[in-house]
Amino acid sequence: MNKKKLAKNTEEFDRRFDDGEDVHDLIEMRNAKIIRHGKKVRITLDIAEALVQDIDQIRESIGVDRAALIKIWLHERIQQEKAASSDH
Prior knowledge:
The protein is mainly α. It has three helices and no strands. Helices cover about 50% and strands about 0% of the residues. The relative contact order is 0.07.
């Protein structure tokens, strides 16, 4: 079995993940931490069917569930907004 070359930095890891590479062999699970963000709140969104289809194409290509992908995107965007507002 060929061992994959480890990513040199987080940017390379993210790029390889985004490119659809199976990165499971690159993750050291002994160091993984579970982060619990408090009580969960259910929300309902009405989204255009075409947008849902686009989301589904992306999630299928990277092998994640729709809700997980949307949560990741929301988290990333919130972090961007926080960083942008702290720069002002």
